[in-house]
Amino acid sequence: MWTRGEVLGFDLETTGVDRFNDVPVSYSLVSVVDGVVRTSWSGLIDPGREIPPEATAVHGITTERARCEGMPLSLAVDLLCDAVVAASTRGVPLGGMKLDYDLTLLDTQAKAFGAGGLVERGWVGPVLDAVVLDRHFDPDRPGHRTLVDLCAHYGIEIVRAHDATADAIASVAVLFALALRWDELREGDPAVLHRSQIDWHREWTERHDEWRISNEMVPTDPRDYVWPVAPVALSRVA
Fold it and tell me: In angstroms, rounded to a whole number, what is the distance separating the alpha carbons of residues 163 and 155?
């Protein structure tokens, strides 16, 4: 079972919430083997632009610190792409929270630097996304499903929310907590689960879009239907 092997936790802290236009300011990769953190890599990134005060208020990283201590954005993007692709080549699941944000942002930046996106570099998954899985296996539970909410629900301590390493570790812990509750998840093949999550995410987005429209809200961006890596340009839902 995947819970007895390696899972690579992944998280980014960024300049904002727009995965197509914002950029990372820190990253963390955490290797979890048989449920235990073995190694981790993390660092600051110079985004090459000002970090908005509202973003700094969330993760605590200032423009000055990122410029002083961070690696160049292009170097960080290549490093992260290499790590994600290497995990995919070995069949190691990439675990995290709302990874369609992190992976789409990484893919968009890689293409912007002209080196090819994740798929062009050989990435095929699998991904295990805590929020997609939680929504599927426990759809009727009331309340929000942020990482902090999921940690509270599953009894997981998160020491420094919005720190990339703390978030990566906590999100993988949520995956293991989910696996303890749901046999289908625990015993599932990661590649099959990856394909299933594509459908589960689309189904949830359709329901959410219907709710938004019924409440006279702006319809969901068609790109939000695509998981885990959305294209910058998409004229309609496929």
Answer: 19
